[in-house]
Write a structure and sequence with these properties.
The complex is a heterodimer of chains A (426) and B (194). With 426 residues, chain A is mainly alpha-helical. Chain A has 21 helices and three strands. Chain A has a three-stranded antiparallel β-sheet. The longest helix of chain B has 25 residues. Classes of the chains: A mainly alpha (426), B mainly alpha (194).
């Protein structure tokens, strides 16, 4: 029997229990080189295996067969179908034993799907791949950004949003995290969930980095625009927790955006529109023109919102004058849209041409509101438990204690405190 | 897969949302499907549940060959465009401006119905008085039909000034809280204080 046939038999025989699987894994790792060299190995060989029972073996063979260079459209289509079926039916326990290989198989799958210019085919398989390779919902995998990228290309924003709902607490590779937050931010922008988009983009902008990278720069540009849409206030200085590299350099590379931000703070629509027109080629190059336009139209809403804080009633003509709208009818439409979106509470009186601004009728007494409060409190409790656990593990970390020991020499509190040893021998 | 759409059509209710198969669930096998997919109904389904953003993204993914060969898909999208630009009266024009096929007629009628009810709710929450002319535009009816419709709901019509006074409907929201929820809230407060 050839070595490949031997291998097939081993796979079929050793895929049942976890002890057998570790033995199988060693055999597979050893046989990888011979498999790659075997020119007789065909896609049809895989028919002898069941992807759900022999997932580990199937994974190794599939990886060898599909990792080759460019292939014809028909072959690529066939390969894509085969990998999609494997991902959907494979056993999560088995593939987690060789998670690196599974991740590289999925990344190759994503590249093929993009080459075929049909990203929709890859969305469902990658969504299921993320869930299978993930050890816990708090851990970011290398597949998260690839999945989000496909969702963006295929315009399946709802699908992408479903994997953003987990709170990520553990990250292996910074680049995965930057991309996850950046793509995630774009998906939230698409779904008009600006609060969540802001959180994700904030994470990229304030992430630790020695030098500014392209992902952080693009994220900063969108961060500026989403801040304007969501909270209406722009500040040129970054939050204190951002790295010094980010604080120094992000602004210099995104001047059109900071100009829009500063102009927005002034509150004059015509000036803002002039700035946008002046830099429109930059915005178009960055694919941000749509977002910029949303920011401009949010200024009308911001200005009307300011009026609700000063006046109880106002005529539609006055609103039009104060907010630089063409006429009372346009003002009425803007106010109506804001009422429809729940941004203000008001009553339009067409008889007198007046608007009366009202208080928020929510009294937080209903059972739905109690459900909402309960879930928010539960999430906060969960996060604070995680934070306490992280704090405890950090205070036992040798590197941290070493640094604290060095710092403490400076503050001499007398003989009462033992000095912390600078090095720990383990 | 198309069958579930026709079933949804007959149900004409929120259950359509559940039976609406997004294309990617069908393509979990990685197969291409664009020519046979009932895009017009899919677009209308998104509009029915007031999800204009999903309709917009769906429109972007439809291949141009389908857009050119199926004018009904373009007509369905026109309704979506009117909704996105908040051309409240234009929506009704877009609905009336096309001769819908047998398969889509029911879906369009269901959407028109639900949209009119949404507009009525909006008028009730946003206006204290409104002209009869605007009322007719918002509800997509003639002025006489519109006034009859609102009078049934207790609104007051003044033909002399061509004005209608809106009558608010009190919204009943459940305030009964059972003991398990109170127990949970008590536990939450305990955690927060310690």
């Amino acid at each position: 029997m050839s070595s490949t046939e031997n291998l097939i038999t081993s796979i079929q025989g050793l895929s049942a229990s976890s002890g057998d699987l570790s033995a199988l894994h060693r055999i597979l790792k050893g046989a990888e080189e011979t498999l790659r060299a075997d020119s007789d190995l065909q896609l049809s060989t895989l028919d002898q295996l069941d992807p759900s029972k022999h997932s580990l073996g199937y994974l190794y063979l599939l990886d060898v067969l599909t990792c080759g260079g460019p292939m014809s459209k028909e072959k690529a289509s066939e390969v894509v179908l085969l990998i999609a079926r494997f991902i959907t039916s494979c056993d999560a326990e088995q593939i987690r034993l060789a998670s690196d290989k599974f991740v590289s198989l999925c990344k190759g799958f994503k590249d093929r799907v993009l080459e075929l210019e049909d990203p929709l085919r890859g969305v469902a398989p990658l969504l299921s791949a993320v869930r299978k390779v993930q050890v816990s919902t708090k851990r970011l995998t290398a597949l998260h950004p690839d999945c989000l990228q496909l969702c963006l290309q295929a315009k399946c924003y709802k699908a992408g949003f479903s994997i953003l709902s987990d709170d990520i607490l553990e990250v292996d590779q910074p680049r995965d995290f930057y991309l996850y937050c950046y793509y995630g931010g774009m998906i939230c922008i698409g779904q008009k969930k600006f609060q969540k988009a802001l959180e994700l983009l904030y994470n990229v902008v304030t992430a630790p980095m020695h030098s500014v990278n392209a992902i952080a720069l693009e994220a900063y540009k969108k961060y500026v625009l989403v801040t304007l849409i969501h909270s209406g206030q722009f500040s040129v200085s970054l939050p204190k927790c951002a790295s010094t590299a980010a604080q120094r350099h992000l602004k210099t590379w995104s001047i059109p955006y900071t100009e829009v931000g500063n102009c927005y703070n002034e509150g004059k629509i015509s000036e803002l529109q002039a700035v946008v027109v002046a830099h429109s080629s930059d915005f178009e190059k960055d694919n941000n023109l749509g977002l910029v336009k949303q920011a401009v139209s949010s200024l009308y809403k911001r200005n009307i919102l300011r009026l609700t804080q000063k006046y109880l009633t106002l005529s539609l003509q006055d609103i039009a004058n104060m907010v630089q709208l063409a006429n009372a009818k346009e003002a009425e439409m803007h106010v109506l849209q804001m009422i429809q979106d729940g941004q203000i509470h008001a009553l339009i009186n067409q008889k007198d041409g007046m608007v009366r601004f009202l208080e928020d009728p929510e009294q937080y007494k209903t059972s739905e509101m109690i459900e909402v409060m309960d879930s928010v409190i539960q999430r906060t409790i969960g996060l604070s438990k995680n934070l306490i656990a992280m704090d405890e593990s950090l205070s036992c970390d040798p590197l941290y204690l070493g640094k604290v020991g060095r710092e403490r020499q400076r503050y001499d509190f007398g003989e009462d405190f033992d000095t912390v040893p600078q090095k720990f021998s383990m | 897969m198309c069958f579930s759409y026709y079933l949804g059509l007959r149900q004409k209710s929120e259950e359509f949302k559940a039976s609406c198969l997004p294309p990617f669930q069908v393509t979990s096998e990685g197969i291409s499907f664009h020519d046979d997919w009932p895009y017009a109904i899919h677009l209308l389904g998104h509009l029915y549940v007031d999800d204009c953003d999903s309709a917009r993204f769906l429109w972007k993914t439809i291949p141009s060959s389908v857009k050119e060969s199926k004018p009904e898909v373009v007509a369905a999208w026109r309704i979506g465009q009117k909704l996105l630009t908040r051309d409240y009266a234009g929506v009704y024009e877009a609905i009336r401006g096309y001769d819908w096929s047998q398969e889509t007629k029911d879906m369009v009628a269901a959407f028109s119905d639900v949209y009119r009810k949404r507009m009525f709710q909006l008028l009730m929450s946003a206006y204290s008085t409104i002209t009869i002319r605007d009322l007719a535009l918002f509800l997509g009816m003639t002025e006489d039909d519109a006034t009859t419709y609102v009078v049934k709901n207790g609104w007051i019509v003044d033909t002399a000034s061509q004005m209608v006074t809106v009558k608010k409907q009190a919204v009943k929201r459940g305030q009964k809280v059972d003991s398990s929820k109170l127990q949970r809230l008590a536990e939450d407060v305990f955690h927060l204080e310690h």
